[in-house]
Amino acid sequence: MNSFPEIINPVRILSASDKISQTPAFVYDETVIIDRLAALSEVRTNSGCKVLYSIKAAPLGGLLQTIIEYVDGFSASSLFECQIAKEIIGGIADNKGTIHITSPGLREEDVKSIANYADYISFNSMNQWQQYKNLVNGKLNCGLRLNPEKSFARDERYDPCRKYSKLGVPVSRVANENLQGIQGIHLHNNCESNDYTELKQTLEHICELLDPELENLQWINLGGGYFIDDAEQLHELEKIIKDLKDKYTLDVFIEPGKGIVGSAGFLVASVVDIFASDGKQIAVLDTTVNHLPEVFEYQYKPHILQEDPEGQYEYRLAGCSCLSGDLFGDYHFQQALEIGSRVTFKNVGAYMLVKASMFNGINLPTVNVLKSDETLLMEREYSYEDFRNKY
Ligand SMILES: Cc1ncc(COP(=O)(O)O)c(C=O)c1O
């Protein structure tokens, strides 16, 4: 869960970490996001695909405004995500970009509202399609989410094709279904992969089982779940998409999330206390694992920019909530930490802030964007009112 290739400029981030006046603070380095989007633009040009940003990874208004300039639209997983997508697209000059949604559990009232915001919907089951097709008829371009029945994710909790999967109509059964009115298919069966041959295998399987159906469809959405840092792998992706487009007259969409924002996000924290416990130095931070919930969820040790495995000073970094397991791990530093020292967690731009909570009444970090000229813009600051109004 921490396998990003290095594409960041540590000096730039360390300087921003020292400059920032208030911690804890999420910092998004805009140059990293733009760099990833430029790589995707090349894939789009070379392969003819369309690129969507999967909003769920980081649904921050300021980031969405930057991202929409480089993509063909947004992919959403709920009514609220569709709403914010529409707001952002409505706010840009040419008002262009499409909104795509898939969700396993849509209620009738959701679908009615979604029809006001989205352009494409991929129903998760034949039941949901049958139930809602008349509601969306003529309003949304309708597709079906497939379960490609090809598993790659190592952790079953993140494997859309796990046994008894709740996600999508099994590809081996689709050919038996009545697809009248269905214009596209959606798939998403990976997580943090750097290996596009897994996508190739998935598509080979789908094309084998659904060849005649694909002839009659308008589009295919290949989902997200892949990193976009490796140029060679991106060429592989281009080739996969070109081959698909050569075979069928399909619009091809991809919808990465973490690949665009994951390595662009940092959390800057400060040390608030240091003491010995059973012979170990504990450094308590002004943040908590509840600001980086995937650290706790996956029990992984996030990387820190200031750490040095060879450093002689060792600390257990602890979060400031009452939870005894609110710990980040043991780290070495070249210099002794002091109260006020900065600690910058890296690769935390995706799925962290959106899952973060105010457990214990601890305020959320501010959200900042580091611009290319090194200015830091504070986008969001949370307050007691946010805590009070939430519950
Ligand atoms: C349907 C769908 N599309 C796209 C994504 C984005 O995946 P990632 O952020 O790993 O690229 C997800 C993530 O859960 C997803 O469920």
Characterise the protein shown here.
- The protein has two domains: 30-255, TIM Barrel (Alpha-Beta Barrel); 262-390, Lyase, Ornithine Decarboxylase, Chain A, domain 1, CATH 2.40.37.10.
- Helix content is 32%, strand content 23%.
- It has twelve helices and 17 strands.
- Strands 1, 11, 12, 13, 14, 15, 16 and 17 form an eight-stranded mixed β-sheet that branches. It has an eight-stranded parallel barrel with strand order 2-3-4-5-6-8-9-10, surrounded by four helices.
- The longest helix is centred in the middle third of the chain and has 20 residues, at 197-216.
- The chain starts with 9 loop residues before the first helix and ends with a helix.
- Residues 1-5 have low confidence and may be disordered.
- Bound molecules: pyridoxal-5'-phosphate.
- The site of pyridoxal-5'-phosphate has 15 residues, from helix 10.
- Pyridoxal-5'-phosphate binds next to helix 10.
The level of helicity is: 25-40%
Order of helical and strand elements: HEHEHEHEHEHEEHEHEHEHEEHEEEEEH
- The count of strands amounts to 17
Quaternary organization: single chain
Which structural class matches the secondary elements? alpha/beta
Rounded to an integer in angstroms, the radius of gyration calculated over CA atoms is: 22 Å
If helices are DSSP runs of H or I spanning 4 or more residues, what is the number of helices? 12
By CATH, the topology of the largest domain is TIM Barrel
